[in-house]
């Protein structure tokens, strides 16, 4: 019975170990990018050795391909041996083989020689003899290895590659993991709801002319593309933390439903597309949206780990959407609207952190990974949430009595109903979060929660009534 040789990247794991180590390093030190460029001048094997040396890969949290694991176990139960041979660095091959306990040997690149393609085929023929092994792989780079193998086994290979493998003439088999790609989910389209905030200046000024609406729509599209770029970047930076989380481990990049290499390319492509759309809205909109991406990047790489500063940054990112709507449409923002948005969105950002701390407490974990909080901070964060939320209602109440509101609305006293609804909703959100039932971003939660939807309808009804009665 030939030895079963198993590839790692894209085969045993639905990921790429080089990108894994790169982004793990980037999450701790942005100097990783410069180190990668320097190491690459000495070849890919040197790059892999450099990246592997900058961080410790956590094999217990990697997205393993279950169909491959089952195949290895069946092979071993039939009396065969299994060997892990990969172009990844030797240290990574060893750690994964040790963790799984399914391999008799593990071989990887040594920092000088990249064990891939023809080099891997030669190594295996020298090690096990011609036709002395069966090989499981996933890409075109494996064709020379399949050609030298007694049996060629592909995993999730496209039809064209499967035909090439079959045409080699040796025994072949094609495995499918059944895992569906998650490219759309990786963009987090449900989060685009936040970008509706670019329309707030139109409603505040009650100006719905054609050009105002068109420019607001451009701002919405640009923000959606750029924010998705930021979400993908955030998920790349948070791979470790997400995989250790009971819900976030299902995110497409963490779960291996989108290759990390593709996610890495999506970041600049989405950013470029968003900036091109923003250019149609003028240089001011372009500047605001680019500033949003810069702030998002700083948040993902540094501010997220700074207690309270992270909450303030999230509140600022919400408010930037309103500012973008203003510069896109040319409609001025009042200091009242800016003050309300800062306090209100500070409360929502604090709710998000409070929900994470409550979840950690339920799981018996004392410290938030890659965050600046302890579970014991939950009462303080709760106080911040309530105080900031109520202050936002106070700002709205004061605004209702201004001359501008008397001019815009025929029955401004009806707007007091909005204050009551917001007081109730903020209080309820804090209560729900304390009970551990806030599993999503509070804005996303609002559109999924029946009570919150009723509150939204009431706010709209009060605003319309104040305008027409």
TrEMBL record:
EC number annotated for this UniProt entry: 2.4.2.45
Keywords for this protein: Cell membrane, Glycosyltransferase, Membrane, Transferase, Transmembrane, Transmembrane helix
InterPro entries referenced in this protein's UniProt entry, alphabetically: HAD-like_sf, HAD_sf, UbiA_prenyltransferase, UbiA_sf
A GO molecular-function descriptor: glycosyltransferase activity
Mode of membrane association: Multi-pass membrane protein
Subcellular location: Membrane
Transmembrane region(s): 196-226, 269-295, 307-327, 333-351, 380-401, 413-431, 451-468
Listed Pfam families: HAD (PF12710), UbiA (PF01040)
Gene Ontology CC terms: membrane
Protein name, UniProt field: Decaprenyl-phosphate phosphoribosyltransferase
Source species: Roseovarius indicus
């Amino acid at each position: 019975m030939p030895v079963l040789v198993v590839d790692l990247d894209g085969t045993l794991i639905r990921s790429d170990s080089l990108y894994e180590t790169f982004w793990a390093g980037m999450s701790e030190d942005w100097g990783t990018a410069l180190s990668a460029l320097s190491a690459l001048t000495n070849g890919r094997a040197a790059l892999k050795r450099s990246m592997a040396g900058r961080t410790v890969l956590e094999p217990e949290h990697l997205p393993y391909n279950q169909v491959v694991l089952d195949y290895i176990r069946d092979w071993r139960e039939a009396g065969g041996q299994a060997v892990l041979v990969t172009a990844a660095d030797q240290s990574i091959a060893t750690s994964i083989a040790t963790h799984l306990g399914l391999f008799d040997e593990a071989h990887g690149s040594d920092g000088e020689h990249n064990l891939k393609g023809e080099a891997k085929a030669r190594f295996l023929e020298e090690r096990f003899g011609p036709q002395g092994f069966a090989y499981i792989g996933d890409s075109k780079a494996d064709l020379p290895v399949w050609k030298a193998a007694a049996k060629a086994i592909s995993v999730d290979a496209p039809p064209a590659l499967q035909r090439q493998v079959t045409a080699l003439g040796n025994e072949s088999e094609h495995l499918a993991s059944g895992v569906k790609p998650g490219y759309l989910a990786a963009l987090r389209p449900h989060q685009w709801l936040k970008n509706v905030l670019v329309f707030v200046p139109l409603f505040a000024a009650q100006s719905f002319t054609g050009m105002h609406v068109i420019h607001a729509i451009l701002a919405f599209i640009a923000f959606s593309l750029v924010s998705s770029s930021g979400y993908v970047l955030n998920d790349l930076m948070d791979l470790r933390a997400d995989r250790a989380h009971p819900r976030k481990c299902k995110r497409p990049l963490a779960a291996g439903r989108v290759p990390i290499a593709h996610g890495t390319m999506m970041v600049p492509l989405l950013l470029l597309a968003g900036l091109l759309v923003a250019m149609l809205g003028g240089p001011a909109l372009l500047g605001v949206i680019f500033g949003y991406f810069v702030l998002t990047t700083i948040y993902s790489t540094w501010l997220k780990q700074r207690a309270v500063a992270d909450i303030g940054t999230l509140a600022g990112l919400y408010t930037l959407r309103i500012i973008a709507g203003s510069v896109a449409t040319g409609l001025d923002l009042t200091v009242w609207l800016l003050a309300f948005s800062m306090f209100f969105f500070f409360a929502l950002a604090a709710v998000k952190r409070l929900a994470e701390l409550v979840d950690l407490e339920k799981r018996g974990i004392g410290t938030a990974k890659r965050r600046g909080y302890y579970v014991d901070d939950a009462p303080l964060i709760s106080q911040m949430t309530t105080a900031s939320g109520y202050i936002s209602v106070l700002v709205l109440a004061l605004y209702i009595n201004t001359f501008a509101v008397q001019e815009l609305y025929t029955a401004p006293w009806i707007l007091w109903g909005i204050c009551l609804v917001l007081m109730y909703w903020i209080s309820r959100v804090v209560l729900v979060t304390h009970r551990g039932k806030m599993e999503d971003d509070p804005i996303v939660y609002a559109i999924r929660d029946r009570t919150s939807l009723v509150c939204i309808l009431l706010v709209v009804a009060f605003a319309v009534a104040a305008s027409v009665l």
